[in-house]
C-alpha cells in the first residue's frame, strides 16, 4: 500500500533540523476531532486515559511531546537524554527496509532505500544523541507540565561510557537530572552497546543490577522502568528477571532488532562505518509480541507486579488489542505513529 502520510519526523533532514524545525505533517496543528476521555486506567501510581503512547526516540523535544499529547497519546516518552551533549550519527539516520522473509534475530541483510511504503519497517541509526542538561531539563519540565489529566510524560535516559569510572554512576546522575524536571516516571535505556564486547548492555546482568541499584539509590521514590532489547534465550531472560524484577517497577520491550541494511547495489546503506542498524516497525512486531508473552508468563509464575509496556510494530487498533491480550499493561508505537500521527485517535475511536 502506498503511503500518503507525512511523517512527523522527516527522514531526509538531519536530526538537528528535525529538532529545530519539527515536528512536521499533522503534528504542526491540533487534531480536528477530539475524544472525550475518562482517566480510568491505573499505571504506576498515575491514572491515565488509554494505556497507549509513543516510546523513547521519535519525540525529540518538548514541541514533539506536546503535539503527541494533543493528538491523544496518553503515555509520551521524551527522547533518551544523557548527562552531557552527545553527537548524532550523520545522515542517513532513517531508511525504509524491505525484508524478503520474516526478519530474524540473527542480523539479516535487508534492502534499504527511501520508499516509505506501508506497512513500514525502518532502520534507525542515531547513536542516541543528546543536548546538555541545561537545554533538555527546562524543556522536559515544560512538556511534563503540558500533560492534561489522564496523560503522563516519561523521562528516558542512559549513561555514557567513559564519563565516570563506572557506568552505573553516570546512569544515576542522569536519573537524578531527569528527576529534577518533575517527570513522574523514569525509564533507563539499556539497549545500548556494552563496553568492549559486541553485545548490548541489557544482556550483562551484573552490570544492569548495579545500574538499577544506583538509580534507585539516587531517586528512591520514583517508579523506574527498564527498556529492553529482544532476548533470544529464555534462560538469560529468566535470570535477568530474577535479579531485576525485585528492584524495578516495569519493563518496556522491545527496542530494535539488528540488521545489515544494504542498497540495491549491495553497498552498506548507512555508510562505511555503520554495517548494522536497528530495525523497527512492522518487521519486528513478532519479536515485541513474543517478549511481552514471555514477560507476562514469568510475572504470573513468580507472582511479581512489574508493569509491561509492549513495543514493536504497532500500527493499527488490532495490534494494540493483540499486545494487551498477550499481557501488556500499556502499548507504544514509534514507527507506526511517526507515519500515522492519528493512530492514538484511531485506536480510541475503534474502542468506543
Ligand atoms: C526515530 C527513532 C529513534 C529512536 N530512539 C530511541 C532512543 O533514543 N531510546 C530508546 O530507548 N529507543 C529509541 N528508539 C526505539 C523505539 O523506542 C522503539 O523501541 C522501536 O522503534 C520499536 O518500536 P516501533 O516498531 O513501534 O518503531 C527509537 C526509534 C525510532 C524510530
UniProtKB/TrEMBL annotation:
<dbReference type="GO" id="GO:0006207">
    <property type="term" value="P:'de novo' pyrimidine nucleobase biosynthetic process"/>
</dbReference>
<dbReference type="InterPro" id="IPR013785">
    <property type="entry name" value="Aldolase_TIM"/>
</dbReference>
<dbReference type="GO" id="GO:0005737">
    <property type="term" value="C:cytoplasm"/>
</dbReference>
<dbReference type="GO" id="GO:0044205">
    <property type="term" value="P:'de novo' UMP biosynthetic process"/>
</dbReference>
<dbReference type="GO" id="GO:0004152">
    <property type="term" value="F:dihydroorotate dehydrogenase activity"/>
</dbReference>
<dbReference type="InterPro" id="IPR050074">
    <property type="entry name" value="DHO_dehydrogenase"/>
</dbReference>
<dbReference type="InterPro" id="IPR005720">
    <property type="entry name" value="Dihydroorotate_DH_cat"/>
</dbReference>
<keyword id="KW-0560">Oxidoreductase</keyword>
<dbReference type="Pfam" id="PF01180">
    <property type="entry name" value="DHO_dh"/>
</dbReference>
<keyword id="KW-0285">Flavoprotein</keyword>
<keyword id="KW-0288">FMN</keyword>
<protein>
    <submittedName>
        <fullName>Dihydroorotate oxidase</fullName>
    </submittedName>
</protein>
<keyword id="KW-0665">Pyrimidine biosynthesis</keyword>
<feature type="domain" description="Dihydroorotate dehydrogenase catalytic">
    <location>
        <begin position="118"/>
        <end position="351"/>
    </location>
</feature>
<comment type="pathway">
    <text>Pyrimidine metabolism; UMP biosynthesis via de novo pathway.</text>
</comment>
<dbReference type="InterPro" id="IPR012135">
    <property type="entry name" value="Dihydroorotate_DH_1_2"/>
</dbReference>
Amino acid at each position: 500500500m502506498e503511503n500518503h502520510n507525512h511523517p512527523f519526523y522527516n527522514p531526509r533532514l538531519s536530526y538537528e533540523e528535525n529538532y529545530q524545525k519539527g515536528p512536521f505533517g499533522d503534528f504542526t496543528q491540533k487534531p480536528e476531532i477530539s475524544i472525550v476521555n475518562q482517566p480510568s486506567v491505573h499505571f504506576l501510581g498515575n491514572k491515565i486515559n488509554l494505556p497507549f503512547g509513543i516510546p523513547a526516540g521519535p519525540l525529540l523535544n518538548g514541541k514533539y511531546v506536546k503535539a503527541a499529547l494533543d493528538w491523544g497519546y496518553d503515555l509520551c516518552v521524551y527522547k533518551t537524554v544523557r548527562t552531557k551533549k552527545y553527537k548524532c550519527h550523520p545522515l542517513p539516520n532513517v531508511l525504509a527496509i524491505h525484508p524478503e522473509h520474516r526478519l530474524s534475530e540473527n542480523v539479516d541483510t535487508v534492502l534499504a532505500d527511501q520508499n516509505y511504503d506501508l506497512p513500514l519497517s525502518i532502520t534507525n541509526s542515531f547513536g542516541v544523541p543528546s543536548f546538555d542538561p541545561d537545554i533538555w531539563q527546562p524543556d522536559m519540565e515544560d512538556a511534563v507540565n503540558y500533560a492534561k489529566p489522564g496523560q503522563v510524560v516519561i523521562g528516558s535516559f542512559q549513561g555514557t561510557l567513559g564519563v565516570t569510572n563506572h557506568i552505573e554512576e553516570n546512569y544515576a546522575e542522569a536519573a537524578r537530572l531527569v528527576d529534577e524536571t518533575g517527570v513522574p516516571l523514569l525509564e533507563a535505556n539499556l539497549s545500548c552497546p556494552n563496553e568492549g564486547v559486541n553485545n548490548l548492555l541489557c544482556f550483562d546482568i551484573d552490570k544492569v543490577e548495579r545500574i538499577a541499584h544506583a538509580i534507585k539509590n539516587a531517586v528512591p521514590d520514583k517508579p523506574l522502568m527498564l527498556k529492553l532489547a529482544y532476548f533470544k534465550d529464555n534462560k538469560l531472560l529468566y535470570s535477568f528477571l530474577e535479579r531485576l524484577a525485585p528492584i524495578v517497577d516495569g519493563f518496556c520491550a522491545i527496542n530494535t532488532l539488528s540488521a545489515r541494511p544494504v542498497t540495491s547495489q549491495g553497498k552498506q546503506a548507512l555508510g562505511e562505518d555503520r554495517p548494522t542498524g536497528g530495525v523497527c516497525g512492522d518487521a519486528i512486531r513478532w519479536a515485541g509480541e513474543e517478549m511481552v508473552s514471555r514477560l507476562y508468563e514469568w510475572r504470573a509464575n513468580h507472582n511479581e507486579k512489574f508493569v509491561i509496556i509492549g513495543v514493536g510494530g504497532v500500527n493499527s487498533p488490532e495490534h494494540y488489542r493483540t499486545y494487551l491480550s498477550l499481557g501488556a499493561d500499556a502499548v507504544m508505537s514509534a514507527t507506526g505513529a511517526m507515519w500515522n500521527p492519528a493512530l492514538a485517535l484511531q485506536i480510541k475511536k475503534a474502542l468506543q
